[in-house]
Request: fold
Amino acid sequence: MSIGSLASLMSLAGSALDSTQKALNVTAQNVANQNTAGYTRRVVAFQDSVSVSAVNISVTQQRDPAVEQRLANQTQVAQAASSKLSALNDLQNVFPVNSSGSTALGSALDGLWTSFASLEANPSDVATRQAVLSSAGSFASAMNSAASQLDQQISGINTQIGGIATNVDSLSKTIAGLNQQILEGRDTDGSISEQRQQVITQLSNYLGVTVTPNTDNAAVTVTASNGAVLVSGASSYAFDMTSTSGLTGGQIGGLVAARDGALTSARTALDQLATTVANAVNTQNAAGVDANGSSGGAIFSSPSSATGFAANIKVVMTSPSGIAAAASGEGSGGSGNASALAALKDAKNTSGETGGDFLAAMLSEIGAQASAASTDNTAQNATLTQIQSQRNAVSGVSLDEEAANLTMYQRAYQANARIFAVADKLMAEAINLGQDTTVS
Reply:
């Protein structure tokens, strides 16, 4: 064998040693990142070379873009379902059911009607009249409490959304920075693209987004679900929270859906109920005669607007003698108007509902929405788990597979080292004209 051939053999063996060492390093990297969220398994491929003195390898990330996109999309949906369920559970807690199977507000409303029925039976009794004012106060207090809790929950959601928006801005800046690095050609091993995908998935936890590759096929544009551009190339833009209309997906989407849906509906319903009861009681009391022989005055405060009234309703009558138990023409000791006040319990609104029916329908709707949200949350998270399993099957690290690769690359390294050693020995002998020479 000529010295030139031996030199080529040594070069080939050296190149093979370098390539198998890189393969061993890739295996070590895979094993070290087995439990790293979002990590994509690297795969080594030995390539044919036109050179007889080099062994080339390529390292690629084992990923399926379609599965990655489905994972990001489902993350948005699952997070929205989870945050919406949490908000609706908090809404249900505003109206806890007591041992009698009623809510505090329901019991207070029933107590008001019961006090009027007792007044009908004993219209001149001061204690019974006082009980009417006490029951009216309990109803107003229950309304105030429920409305205050709802207002606090809505305010808390707004604060929470504001905090999440700060995280959105931070992640958008990170994506723009990674876009810049990719555009500069620094993503030689795909690790920057992998990092960007991980950040996009994190962003999907917070907000529904659409990711579009740019025409350069390197950078991406990230758009919020309401159409606002968050990232374009190497530039990021602050997330505008002045309007949440059209926002879906992620924690923000779920919170907005709960706030603008069930919570706002419940708050409006409370105002309607408080306004209806206050107006009906005040109007009916004004139609009767009080203990002093005068027309009855207002028992509750009168709303200037239904909006916000549940938080402000209060009892304005201070003396029990102002309750008009008697009907006009009966004299102050009559009970005709007390009967009419008690009959308000069965009075129906334009939808054919009594006050009790209206409250029951509101509570039933809240329960139904919470139940539906729970079912949806379970289904969406099950789907997310399934897609995560699909991604892991493609991109996850298998220790068994890596162990097999490790053994194969170690054996290859040992074989290449042996070839190199033999070629080196032959080269030394050739240089020394066939004499057996120790190579140091």
